[in-house]
Amino acid sequence: MQEYCAYTIFVDESGTDSLKNFKDDDRYFVLAFCIFDKNYYSQEAVPKFQKLKFDTFGHDQKIIHGYDMMNCIGDFECLQDSKIKNVFLNRLTEIIESTNFILISTVIDKKRLIDRYVNAQNPYDLALKYSLERVQSFLHERNQENKIAHIIVESRDSKSNERLKNAFVKIKNGDNWNQSSFNFEIEFVNKKSNSTGLQIADLVAEPIRCKFLRPEKLHQNFRSLENKFYCKGGRNHTGKNFDGYGLKLFPY
């Protein structure tokens, strides 16, 4: 019988992975991995997220997507009422801050990438590789690296899914920094599945990208994530020493 990892891992991106004719506001591509203890996820993280939906919308079938939410469009037209929006966003921020998960993210600077490399690799593939290497390191620390860990990503079109799966298989089979095998399995999940983990991954990816797009600005949403990044030195050093560990910028 297969033995499964104690953690479940959700992935989402911010920005596009295209290297052709991108604008300044699309300079950075971000891949964010949210790692949850399965027991905590099912017993605490999901119920907190669902209760916010019940209290705000009357049901839990709304799928929280950062862009639609902040622009008060689609399923979030009710947030055009500033009072409802403020209460909702304050509670959502509180939930993200109080929910326990480990955050691993890779940021690809597409401008530096094409300036430095003649045949630049696809940003998604690069971010996936660097992030999976760090996930493996985290699981090794927790004695979970020999158990099957599922990587949950939002399904796109079939061509994109196939390309991503091929890149994923290469990395897990040894195309990584120490040429070892990773015991990972990838699962493509339809956005309509209403996965709490995928929605949280969506919400954390954009603040990371904004931090790099506008470094001169104080990004409060990013500050609220700092204690969640995988870092050098373990739990006693959360909130610091995460550059290059839980948060990698490439090229640097």
Please provide the count of β strands: 6
CATH class category name: Alpha Beta
Strand content: 15-25%
Strand line-up of the largest beta sheet: 5-4-1-2-3-6
Total domain units: 1
Using only CA atoms, what is the Rg?
Answer: 18 Å
Poorly predicted segments: none
Order of helices and strands: EEHHHEHHEHEHHE
| First-to-last CA distance | 43 Å
Mean pLDDT: 93
Mind explaining what this structure looks like?
- This protein is an alpha/beta fold and about 250 residues long.
- The chain has a single domain (about 5-60, about 100-250), classed as Nucleotidyltransferase, domain 5.
- It contains 8 helices and 6 strands.
- It has helices at about 40-55, 65-70, 80-100, 110-115, 125-140, 160-170, 195-215, 220-225, and strands spanning about 5-15, 30-35, 100-110, 150-155, 185-190, 245-250.
- α1 runs antiparallel to α3 and α5 crosses α6 (about 160-170).
- The longest helix has 20 residues, at about 40-55.
In short:
Helices cover 42% and strands 17% of the residues. The chain contains eight helices and six strands, in the order ββαααβααβαβααβ.
Give the arrangement of secondary structure elements.
Layout: E1 7-14, E2 28-37, H1 38-57, H2 66-71, H3 82-98, E3 102-109, H4 110-116, H5 123-141, E4 149-154, H6 158-172, E5 184-189, H7 196-213, H8 220-223, E6 247-250
Parallel strand pairs: 1-4, 3-6, 4-5
Antiparallel strand pairs: 1-2, 2-3
Quick tags:
alpha/beta, Nucleotidyltransferase, domain 5, 252 residues, six-stranded mixed β-sheet
